[in-house]
Amino acid sequence: SHRRRSGGLPYPPGPKGDPIIGNLRQLPDGKKEPLHITYKKWSKIYGPVFSLESFGNRVVVLNTAHATNELLEKRGNIYSDRNPGVIRRLSTDHHFPGMDYDEEFRTYRKVVNAAFNPTAVKDYSDIQEQETYECLEHLLESPDQWFFHMRRAAGSIILRVTYDHKVTTHDDHLVEINEAAIPNNLIAVTPTAFVVNFIPWLQYMPDWFPGTNYRPFVKKVLDGHMAIRNTPWVELKERMAKGAIKPCYASRLLEMKGQITGSDDEEYIIKGTYAISPLPSPALCSSQAASAGIMYGAAVDTTLGTMASFVLAMLMHPECQKKLQAEIDSVVGRDRLPTFADEDHLPYLRWCVLETLRWMPVAPLGLAHACIQDDIYEGMFIPKGSIIVANQWAILHDETMYPKPMDFWPERWDGRFPQARDARLYAFGFNRRMCPGRHLAYRSVFIMAANLLSAFTLAPDEASPLPENVSLGTGQTFKCRFVPRSSEKAALVRSTASSLDAN
Ligand code: HEM
């Protein structure tokens, strides 16, 4: 029947598979080399848009800016769904990044965008600065724990932004329930993780039937969603009732009541959120909590991974580090630490952050989209339900836009290459699904990078080789040294951090 629907047009080409199981045996597991590298190699053989198939499920991989522009951007109305896998569907339950592209999703997206647009995120500057200064102090105390300290800072930023919840201990309960939920959430959206994603009718078989053992897993995912939504929500409401809350994502939405979606639903959503009046709609209330509840998972590994890429770049390029420190010193002086007010005066740092996002993007294959309707692209047939993977890494390493793509070369952003499109246009995904937290994320990385190099010189650990790659995932770390630049700087860090305690 596909033949008929396709009008005889071929699918995007790809490696030859076996009958029925298709490309199952060719599917790379990413162990030998990272998947985005394999895909880039295949794009040289099969073309910039190629496809894989197994049990009738098709994955289309886009390897150029031209292809993502034509499909994910221009045809965003049909290319903004998430993968049609059974497990993703069963375990989504208002979990925003995994939601179908439907009316409910669009309402959420408006609400989320309103709280994280470029103007709105400026309200979170103090939070980002303070958490950064505290992180510096922790780095002075135990530099070998650098990954842990940055993780805590990224976690505290997002929990303060969403719920005005500051992380003050090593065993913060909100951090713990969020951390526990992340690995399962990632598995839930991985199309190849369970057989039932390939053979959907298995979901109608009884528990004893082979291939149905995904059920306890789905329950675990859903329980995790409930915990990350409800626990902070209940606490937030209690504190609001006492008037003990500072402005945050939640309070911002309240201020904008009625202005975001313009619908009655929004009243419900926001009222429901705060339990100001008896809850009109429990479902909407829980969905609003859900949009806040996912922020930790979306924000922490990604921000931390980008910081790890930045640290790696600095270790590999002491000359960039020196240049950055000279720029920071000349703008900030020696008597204080960098703030967002310095941003406009630190062009080299801005290029370094852009270059970090380009050189070692933390989500090299982004988060897969899916197509909700049959489509034809350059003579190829893309069937409804295809999973669409954008090889963001391949685009960010396309030498026609970024000459010498493998080099970490901040100067490429000084205007000498007009064809170099802003790395943020690819590192954060696409169009209606593009990362809504990107402005906040960019600012977190910017302020952490500025302060890190203001206070420390980063040096390799002689005994441990540097990794080739820093990829997304908990616990990925490497050894290096954070050497305070002077005893005066160390004292400045301590006094800045303790002045926060006093406030
Ligand atoms: C440097 C850090 C970050 C990177 C590289 C990053 C990257 C991404 C990418 C590639 C996607 C998928 C986009 C797509 O499907 O096309 C995404 C989605 C998302 N990100 Fe981020 N992100 C970062 C930080 C954050 C932060 C700080 C937040 C929260 C404030 C956040 C919230 C989200 C949400 C809610 C989604 C789901 C959007 C949707 O499904 O429509 N991200 N991010």
Give an account of the 3D structure.
The chain is α+β, with helices and mostly antiparallel strands and 503 residues long. It contains 20 helices and 8 strands. It has a 4-stranded mixed beta sheet. The chain has a two-stranded antiparallel sheet with strand order 4-5. Helix 10 (215-241) crosses helix 13 (282-293), helix 14 (295-316) crosses helix 16 and helix 14 (295-316) packs parallel to helix 19. The radius of gyration is 23 Å and the shape is globular. Protoporphyrin IX containing FE binds at residues 96-97, 109, 116, 294-295, 298-299, 302-303, 306, 362-363, 366-367, 369, 427-430, 433-437, 440-441, 445. Residues 96-97, 109, 116, 294-295, 298-299, 302-303, 306, 362-363, 366-367, 369, 427-430, 433-437, 440-441, 445 line the site of protoporphyrin IX containing FE (HEM).
